Amino acid sequence: MMYTLGIDVSTTATKSLLVDETGRVVAVAAAEYDFETPHPLWSEQDPALWWDGAVQSIRAVITQAGVDPASISGVGLTGQMHGLVLLDAQGTVLRPAILWNDQRTAAECADLEERLGPRLLEITGNRALTGFTAPKLMWVRTHEPEVYQRVAQALLPKDYVRYRLTGAYATDKAGAAGTLWLDVHRRNWSADILDALDLPAGWLPPTYEGPAVTGHVSDQAAQATGLRAGTPVVAGGGDQAAQAVGVGAVDEGITALTLGTSGVVFATSRAARIEPEGRLHAFCHAVPDRWHLMGVMLSAAGSLRWYRDSLAPDLDYDALLAETLDVPPGSEGLLFLPYLTGERTPHPDPLARGAFVGLTVRHRRAHLTRAVLEGVAFGLRDSFALMQGAGLPPIRQVRISGGGARSALWRQIIADVLNAELVTVNTTEGAAFGAALLAGVGAGLWPTVDAACTRTITVTGSTTPKAGATARYEQAYAVYRDLYPALKPSFARLAHE
C-alpha cells in the first residue's frame, strides 16, 4: 500500500494527514499555536511555529499509522493564503509574517488602486483588499525600510514550510493568485504589476500547477520529520482551492460551499472569468488549467453562534433549531442581515451591521432563530447570483461542508433558497485531504486530479429543494436584496457611535 501526505498550514495549527491509495484517511495529527496582535488591526505569526508544527504532526501521523516512510509517495501542501513571509539572501526570516487577517494596509490598497486603475482588476481578477499580499510588502517598504533593504525572497506561509522541507523556493498558482502579483489569465507573475510596484521579479518564487513536483525532501528535513529523503513535494494549493479538491469540486457545474464561521462559495471554471465589479475573487484553481470564482461572507455559522451565545446560551444547537420546525419558510415576514462583522461579498463594506427587520409581536424566539438560518442562506445566494452574472454555467450540484452543514434543517433551507441539490461527501478533512490528493497525482498514484476525486470521493447524502419553499424564498430574497442599499447610510452613521 502506498500513501500520500497532506500538510495544512493554517492560522491556528499545522495539520498532517496520511491517505492511502484508496483515499482512506489512516492518520491525522495537528500541532496548535497562537498568532500575535502587537497593535490594533495587526495580525502576525512567527514562521518557526509552522515548521515546528509540521515536524510534530508529520512524526505523529507516521507513528500513528505505523507505516514505513518509504511507502509515502508524495507530500502536498496547503494553508492560509495572502500572508507575507520575508527572507534574506541566506533564507533567514526577517520579521514575523503578516497574516491574511491583518488590516493595517488601507493606505497601500488605495495606492495600488490609484497606480493601476482598472488594470489591477483586469490583470489579477481582484481589487486591492487589505488581506492580500502585495499591499503588505508595500507597507514594509514604507514603514520598515531597514527590513525591506534586506529582502531577497517573499513567500506565502505554506511555501515557507516547503522551503524548510526541500530547500527550494516555489509556490502554487492558486495561492499566487491571492497575492495581487499574478496575471490570472496567464497563470504567472505579471511583469506589468511588478514594474508598477517597482518590485524585483527575483523576489518571487517560480509558480507551479497544483500536482507538479516542486522539490524533494532534503536530508536535513528527513532527519527532522521522519520522512524519506527524496520524497517528492508537490505545489499543492491555497486552502480554499485545496478544500475544493478535497470535496471534488474540480469542474464546472459543481460548486463547493463551506459553512463555517465564515461562508465560502467556490465555483470552478474552465476559463478565467472576472466579475465586472470585482465583487468576487477570481483565482487560479489547484487543478491545472482551471480557475475559480469565490465569494466570502464573513459571518455565516458565526451568525448562529453569536445568536445562540447571546440569546439562548442555555440551549445546545440541536435544541435551539428544533424550536423552529413549526415556523414556515420566510419566518412570517422576519428577515435577518448577517453582517455582524461587516461584509465582503457582495458588499465589501467593513461598516455593514447585522439587523433583524420585520419584527412584530407575533414573532417568538423560534422565528428569530429561523430568520438567522435563512439570512445566512440569502447571503450565500448573493455569491451564487454574482457567479451566474459572471457567465458561469448553471450549477448542477452544491457540495457542502463545515460545521453548519451538520444541521439537516439548515441544509434544507439552503437547498430551498438556492433551488439546487445540496450534497454531503465522505471526506471531512477538507484542505489537507485535497493536498494529499494533489500529492498522489504528482506521485503517479492517480493520472489526473479529476480521476483522484472520482476514485476517492463519494456522495453520502442529498438534500433537494422543495418547490413550495423555493417559491416563498424567491419573494423573501427580493426583499432581502433591498435592505442593504436602504440601510447602508445608517450603517455608516452608526459606525461613529
Overview of this structure, please?
The protein is an alpha+beta fold and 497 residues long. It has a domain at 3-240: ATPase, nucleotide binding domain (Nucleotidyltransferase, domain 5), CATH 3.30.420.40. Helices cover 38% and strands 21% of the residues. The protein has a 7-stranded mixed beta sheet with strand order 18-19-17-16-22-23-24, sandwiched between helices. The protein has a 5-stranded mixed beta sheet with strand order 3-2-1-5-15, with helices on both faces. It starts with a strand and ends with a helix.
**The CATH homology group name of the domain at 3-240:** ATPase, nucleotide binding domain
> Helix/strand/pairing class, anyone?
alpha+beta
Q: What is the CATH topology of the domain at 3-240?
A: Nucleotidyltransferase, domain 5
Query: What portion of residues belong to β-strands?
Result: 15-25%
Task: Give the C-alpha Rg.
Answer: 22 Å
Index terms:
497 residues, alpha+beta, Nucleotidyltransferase, domain 5, 7-stranded mixed beta sheet, 5-stranded mixed beta sheet, 38% helix
Q: TL;DR of this structure?
A:
By secondary structure, the protein is an alpha+beta fold.
List the helices and strands and how they pair.
Layout: E1 3-9, E2 13-20, E3 25-32, E4 44-45, H1 47-65, E5 72-79, E6 85-87, E7 97-98, H2 106-116, H3 118-124, H4 133-143, H5 145-148, E8 153-155, H6 157-166, E9 171-172, H7 173-176, E10 182-183, E11 188-189, H8 191-196, E12 207-208, E13 213-216, H9 219-225, E14 232-234, E15 237-238, H10 239-247, E16 254-259, E17 263-269, E18 281-284, E19 291-297, H11 301-311, H12 317-322, E20 335-337, E21 355-357, H13 365-389, E22 397-401, H14 408-418, E23 421-425, H15 431-443, H16 449-456, E24 459-463, H17 467-494
Parallel strand pairs: 1-5, 5-15, 9-12, 16-22, 22-23
Antiparallel strand pairs: 1-2, 2-3, 4-7, 6-8, 10-11, 13-14, 16-17, 17-19, 18-19, 20-21, 23-24
Helix pairs in contact: 1-6, 2-4, 10-15, 11-13, 13-14, 14-17
